[in-house]
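A.,

Following up on our hallway conversation. Structure tokens first:
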């Protein structure tokens, strides 16, 4: 395989660490930055370096933050008794943009996956248990993804919460608004049918 020189090859390879970026996309990005937007590339490198230096995880909810305690956790107008548990920081942004939720969050940064060596400690479950034991949280909202791993993680956390008499709710999963039954997959339809509510 022909190479373009070590610097170019290494940049192409480095860009492939981004989700959804394959060899062709990485090559296009590299050529764009080097041929058409070197100032943009320099700015990107500077901002990336700054973010990697300054951004860490909030010590309370584990979302990405430049402060030890993020602005949401420091917001006294947010409810302390509701705790929404999500898998990734991006899930917090999605919930904030789509709902009027005013409680607190806890970000797992993943889901339980014993085969990949991801256990409770890697997800911060000991910290979560510590929060439960403070007896401030009265409702846990499980907003993990509706995958097998997400469901297993939700079940694991719900057992811990219920053992401490904390009310547990789960985001509803089912037929999307505007969806037609004939196009809904059988698993989603089965879940929606089993979880039907009074109308």
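Then the amino acids I'd put at each of the 199 positions:
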């Amino acid at each position: 395989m022909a190479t373009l020189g070590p610097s170019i090859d290494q940049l192409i390879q480095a860009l492939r660490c981004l989700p959804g970026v394959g060899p062709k996309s990485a090559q296009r990005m590299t050529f764009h930055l080097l041929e058409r937007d070197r100032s943009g590339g320099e700015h990107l490198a500077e901002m990336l370096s700054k973010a990697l230096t300054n951004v860490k995880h909030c010590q309370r909810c584990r979302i990405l933050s430049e402060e030890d305690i993020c602005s949401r956790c420091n917001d006294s107008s947010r409810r302390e008794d509701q705790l929404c548990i999500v898998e990734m920081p991006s899930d917090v942004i999605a919930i904030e943009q789509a709902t009027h939720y005013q409680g607190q969050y806890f970000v797992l940064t993943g889901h339980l996956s014993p085969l990949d060596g991801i256990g409770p400690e890697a997800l911060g479950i000991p910290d979560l248990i510590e929060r439960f034991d403070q007896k401030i949280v009265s409702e846990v909202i499980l907003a993990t993804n509706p995958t097998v791993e997400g469901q297993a993680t939700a079940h694991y956390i719900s057992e811990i919460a219920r053992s401490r008499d904390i009310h547990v709710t789960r985001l509803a999963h089912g037929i999307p608004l505007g969806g037609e039954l004939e196009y809904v997959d059988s698993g989603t339809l089965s879940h929606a049918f089993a979880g039907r509510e009074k109308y």
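Residues 38-54 form the longest helix (17 residues). Curious whether your intuition agrees with the design.

B.
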